[in-house]
């Protein structure tokens, strides 16, 4: 079975993001991308609702796999090494996509933005009451993150699609770690790691003026 089609388990994502940072707090791309593969399985487990995001993420993962197995693979062990290499060698299109449309910096930036949406959404689910509407939580998280980068027609389509999300209890049980309460406890453990990785990545991109790459 394909890695991205196997059954989702939140614990696998937790382990990947736990391993994502080394002692220097560098973001290790092997584990970052592994965490994202787990999140893709999660999105796919919810049906076609999130296909607009999961398909794009899969494309981005394929680009990163090519860079990490290519002739310059030694520069793609960590996010920090990749940024230093690509920026230092002018391999990033800063103003418009031209010579380097699929740079590692641009590719990870798209994953980074999507990670913020998922982090906000899962945090909302974790802290919400039992009768909370997951569609509203998802829409609020989307509007606070990814919506900024999407045209109106996509924003409209995805917020309508979110209405098909299951109840909070069913949603939590889809994480395959037991009861809804056990899923909440696992999110308690997982989300701080995801947030830490996000914040370190955000700071790195801001320092190099890479947050608005075309």
From TrEMBL:
<comment type="similarity">
    <text>Belongs to the GLTP family.</text>
</comment>
<keyword id="KW-0539">Nucleus</keyword>
<keyword id="KW-0813">Transport</keyword>
<dbReference type="GO" id="GO:0010008">
    <property type="term" value="C:endosome membrane"/>
</dbReference>
<dbReference type="InterPro" id="IPR036497">
    <property type="entry name" value="GLTP_sf"/>
</dbReference>
<keyword id="KW-0333">Golgi apparatus</keyword>
<dbReference type="GO" id="GO:0005886">
    <property type="term" value="C:plasma membrane"/>
</dbReference>
<keyword id="KW-0446">Lipid-binding</keyword>
<dbReference type="GO" id="GO:0005640">
    <property type="term" value="C:nuclear outer membrane"/>
</dbReference>
<dbReference type="GO" id="GO:1902387">
    <property type="term" value="F:ceramide 1-phosphate binding"/>
</dbReference>
<keyword id="KW-0963">Cytoplasm</keyword>
<keyword id="KW-0445">Lipid transport</keyword>
<keyword id="KW-0967">Endosome</keyword>
<dbReference type="GO" id="GO:0005794">
    <property type="term" value="C:Golgi apparatus"/>
</dbReference>
<dbReference type="GO" id="GO:1902388">
    <property type="term" value="F:ceramide 1-phosphate transfer activity"/>
</dbReference>
<dbReference type="GO" id="GO:0005829">
    <property type="term" value="C:cytosol"/>
</dbReference>
<dbReference type="Pfam" id="PF08718">
    <property type="entry name" value="GLTP"/>
</dbReference>
<dbReference type="GO" id="GO:0032691">
    <property type="term" value="P:negative regulation of interleukin-1 beta production"/>
</dbReference>
<protein>
    <recommendedName>
        <fullName>Ceramide-1-phosphate transfer protein</fullName>
    </recommendedName>
</protein>
<keyword id="KW-1003">Cell membrane</keyword>
<feature type="domain" description="Glycolipid transfer protein">
    <location>
        <begin position="28"/>
        <end position="176"/>
    </location>
</feature>
<keyword id="KW-0472">Membrane</keyword>
<dbReference type="InterPro" id="IPR014830">
    <property type="entry name" value="Glycolipid_transfer_prot_dom"/>
</dbReference>
């Amino acid at each position: 079975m394909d890695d991205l089609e196997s059954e989702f388990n939140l614990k696998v994502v937790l382990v990947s993001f736990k391993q994502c940072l080394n002692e220097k707090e560098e973001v290790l791309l092997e584990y970052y991308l592994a965490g994202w593969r787990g999140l893709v399985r999660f999105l796919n487990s919810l049906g076609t609702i999130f296909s607009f995001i999961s398909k794009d993420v899969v494309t981005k993962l394929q680009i990163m796999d090519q860079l990490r197995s290519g002739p310059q693979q030694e520069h793609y062990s960590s996010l920090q090494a990749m940024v230093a290499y690509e920026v230092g060698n002018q391999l990033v299109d800063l103003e418009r996509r031209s010579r380097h449309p699929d740079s590692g910096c641009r590719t990870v930036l798209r994953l980074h933005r999507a990670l913020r949406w998922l982090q906000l959404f899962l945090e909302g689910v974790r802290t919400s009451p039992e009768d909370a509407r997951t569609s509203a939580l998802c829409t609020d998280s989307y509007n606070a993150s990814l919506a900024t980068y999407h045209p109106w027609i996509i924003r409209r389509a995805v917020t309508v699609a979110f209405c098909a999300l299951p109840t909070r209890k069913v949603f939590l049980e889809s994480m395959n770690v037991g009861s809804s309460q056990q899923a909440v406890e696992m999110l308690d453990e997982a989300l701080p790691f995801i947030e830490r990785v996000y914040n370190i990545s955000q700071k790195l991109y801001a320092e190099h003026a890479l947050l608005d790459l075309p």
